[in-house]
């Protein structure tokens, strides 16, 4: 498994809670230090998300989570949905969680005080609608 695939897997798991799902396509990076993929929304608009080879696994996951979050917010907005992903379970209809590295682990954290903290890749998928 490539560094990109290993880091993207937990982020895509959590993205299943989003009302808009991407088509994932290969991206041929012009940089030897980078691996990436295209995320395309249902309208065909896309964004490249990438990792820097050699970063820590947690840093790669957080970097991808931030870029995937940007993609999701834009795709949700274009679809006429609430542009908040992933939604903070402690503050519904308010704000998204932030991706961060905490104690060497990639987590989603509430920006209003640090709680709740959910490991990226373990966000509950039942909230998708």
Write the layout of secondary structure elements.
Layout: H1 3-15, E1 23-27, E2 34-40, E3 46-52, H2 57-78, E4 98-102, E5 105-109, E6 117-119
Antiparallel strand pairs: 1-2, 2-3, 4-5, 5-6
Helix pairs in contact: 1-2
Any overview of this molecule?
The structure is a single chain. The chain has helices at residues 3-15, 57-78; strands at 23-27, 34-40, 46-52, 98-102, 105-109, 117-119. Helix 1 (3-15) crosses helix 2. The chain has a three-stranded antiparallel sheet. It has a three-stranded antiparallel sheet with strand order 4-5-6. It has one domain. By secondary structure, the chain is an alpha+beta fold. It is 27% helix and 25% strand.
Largest sheet: 3 strands, antiparallel
Q: How many angstroms separate the termini? A: 31 Å
Quaternary organization? single chain
The total of beta strands comes to 6
Side by side, the strands of the main sheet go 1-2-3
Content of β-strand: 15-25%
- Runs in which pLDDT lies below 50 for 5 or more consecutive residues are none
Number of helices: 2
Given the helix and strand composition, which structural class is it?
alpha+beta
The tally of structural domains comes to 1
Taken in chain order, the helices and strands follow as: HEEEHEEE
Shape: flat
Mean pLDDT: 90
Give the % helix. Answer: 25-40%
Radius of gyration: 14 Å
Précis, in short:
The protein is α+β, with helices and mostly antiparallel strands. The chain contains two helices and six strands; from the N terminus they run H-E-E-E-H-E-E-E.
């Amino acid at each position: 498994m490539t560094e990109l695939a290993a880091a993207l897997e937990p982020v895509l798991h959590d993205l299943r809670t989003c009302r808009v799902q991407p088509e994932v396509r290969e991206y041929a990076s012009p940089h030897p230090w980078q691996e990436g993929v295209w995320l395309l929304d249902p309208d065909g608009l896309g964004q490249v998300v990438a990792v820097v080879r050699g970063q820590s696994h947690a840093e790669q996951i957080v970097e991808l989570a931030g870029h995937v979050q940007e993609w999701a917010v834009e795709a949700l907005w274009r679809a006429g949905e609430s542009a908040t992903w992933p939604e903070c379970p402690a503050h519904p209809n308010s704000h998204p969680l932030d991706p961060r590295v905490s104690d060497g682990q990639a987590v989603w954290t509430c920006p209003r005080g640090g709680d709740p903290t959910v490991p990226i890749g373990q966000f509950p998928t039942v909230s998708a609608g």
